[in-house]
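Support request from a user on the community tier.

User writes: "When I paste my C-alpha cells into the form, the page sometimes reloads and wipes my input. The last time it worked, I copied everything first. Here is what I submitted, just in case something in the input itself triggers the reload:"
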C-alpha cells in the first residue's frame, strides 16, 4: 500500500467518523429541542390551568356575592312586607275594638277579661283598673258588675284610671302581681300568633324569610 493510499484511507475514516459524530449531535439536538418544546408546552398547560382555576374561583366569588346581595334584598323586602302586614292587622284590630266598645257586648267582653284575671291571680282581694271611659260608663254599677264576673272574689275599682284603649288591669291589693288584660296587653301576647298567621299567609308554600335564593 502506497503512502497516498494510506492518506486517502485515513481521510475517509476521519470523514466517516465526523459524519457519525455530526449525525449523533444532530439527533441529540433534535431530542433536546423536542424535550424543550414538550416542557414549555407543559408549563403553558399548567399556567393555563392555574389561570382557568383562578378565573373560575373569582367567578364563583362574584356569583356568591351577587347571590348574597339578592338574598339580603329579598330578606329586607320580606321583613318589610311582614312588618306592614302586622301593623295593618293591629290597626284593623284597633278599629274593631273601638267599634266593639260602642256596643253592650263590650261589657260582656270586659266581664270575661276580669274573670280571667281573677282566675289567674286567685286572691280574695283584688283591684281592677279601667280606663277613664269605662270608669264613667260603669259608674255606680261596678260592685254589681265585679261581683257577677269575679264569682265571690272581692274586686275593688282602682281610683286611678289607666291610659289604655280598654280592657282591665287586675292586680293584687299590694300590687306585687298583675294580670294585664287590657287591649294592649292582650295584643302584645298575641304578637307571636299574629306573626305566624301573617307568615303563613305571605308564604303559603312554607317558604321562610330565612330561605335562600339559588341560581
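"...and here is what came back when it finally went through:"
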Amino acid at each position: 500500500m502506497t503512502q497516498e493510499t494510506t492518506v486517502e484511507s485515513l481521510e475517509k475514516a476521519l470523514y466517516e467518523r465526523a459524519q457519525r459524530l455530526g449525525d449523533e449531535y444532530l439527533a441529540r439536538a433534535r431530542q433536546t429541542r423536542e424535550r424543550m418544546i414538550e416542557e414549555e408546552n407543559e408549563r403553558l398547560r399548567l399556567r393555563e390551568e392555574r389561570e382557568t382555576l383562578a378565573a373560575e374561583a373569582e367567578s364563583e366569588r362574584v356569583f356568591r356575592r351577587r347571590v348574597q346581595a339578592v338574598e339580603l334584598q329579598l330578606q329586607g323586602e320580606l321583613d318589610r312586607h311582614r312588618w306592614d302586614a302586622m301593623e295593618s292587622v293591629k290597626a284593623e284590630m284597633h278599629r274593631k275594638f273601638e267599634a266593639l266598645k260602642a256596643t253592650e257586648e263590650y261589657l260582656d267582653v270586659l266581664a270575661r277579661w276580669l274573670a280571667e284575671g281573677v282566675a289567674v291571680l286567685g286572691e280574695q282581694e283584688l283591684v281592677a283598673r279601667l280606663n277613664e271611659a269605662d270608669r264613667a260608663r260603669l259608674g255606680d254599677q261596678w260592685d254589681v258588675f265585679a261581683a257577677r264576673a269575679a264569682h265571690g272574689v272581692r274586686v275593688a275599682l282602682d281610683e286611678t284610671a289607666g291610659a289604655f284603649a280598654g280592657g282591665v288591669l287586675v292586680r293584687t291589693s299590694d300590687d306585687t302581681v298583675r294580670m294585664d288584660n287590657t287591649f294592649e296587653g292582650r295584643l302584645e301576647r298575641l304578637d307571636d300568633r299574629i306573626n305566624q298567621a301573617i307568615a303563613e299567609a305571605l308564604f303559603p308554600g312554607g317558604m321562610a324569610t330565612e330561605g335562600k335564593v339559588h341560581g
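Agent notes: The reload is a front-end session timeout and is unrelated to the input. The chain has a mean pLDDT of 83. The chain has six helices and four strands. Escalated to web team.
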